[in-house]
Write a structure and sequence with these properties.
4 helices; about 35% strand; Nuclear Transport Factor 2, Chain: A; about 170 residues; alpha+beta; seven-stranded mixed β-sheet; elongated; about 35% helix
């Protein structure tokens, strides 16, 4: 299969899943449960608790962070998040999700997408972006199987190097 046909088939399958998820398969209880998982992740991140965040991921989940390679498996995700959470905690950075994300469910698969903000100690927004998570329901519990996010804007340009003194 050519790359373009593969991409078209994937997009078609994603549209079919999304379309059916928004239809009759979506229940308010499942959407609320998916949102609760997202809020548990935010709480864990802001508390610098990688263990609490890691248990929200399936054992075979894949984290797709911007600017970094994919991170596969719960243990690797925990290590990745632990490093990022420690750096954020030290810098006084906190993470929040906008209310009312989009989401849907089809059988034992669910998805959530929405926007996020990252703020510094003073409450100034230092990053804003969007996220998408795909989850599976196992034993009555929703677990992330794919999780990704990206910023809405490029970071500000680096400050120019100081000019060399004139002779």
């Amino acid at each position: 299969m050519t790359a373009m046909k593969h991409i078209a088939a994937s997009l078609g399958a994603a549209a079919l899943i999304a379309g059916s998820a928004i239809a009759a398969g979506t229940t308010a209880a499942d959407i609320a449960a998916l949102e609760a998982v997202d809020q548990a992740w935010v709480k864990a991140f802001n508390a610098n608790n990688a263990e609490a965040a890691a248990v929200l991921y399936d054992e075979k989940a894949v984290l797709l962070p911007p600017g970094d390679p994919a991170v596969a498996g719960r243990a690797a995700i925990k290590a990745y998040l632990a490093k990022g959470m420690a750096e954020a905690s030290k810098a006084g950075i906190s993470f929040s999700l906008a209310p009312k994300p989009a989401g849907g469910v089809s059988g034992n698969m669910g998805w959530q997408s929405g926007s996020y903000t990252v703020t510094d100690k003073a409450g100034k927004v230092i990053e804003a972006g969007k996220y998408l998570s795909v989850s599976t329901k196992k034993g009555g519990k929703w677990l992330y199987v794919r999780d990704t996010w990206n910023t809405d804007a490029a970071p500000p340009p680096a400050a120019p190097a100081p000019a060399a003194p004139k002779k």
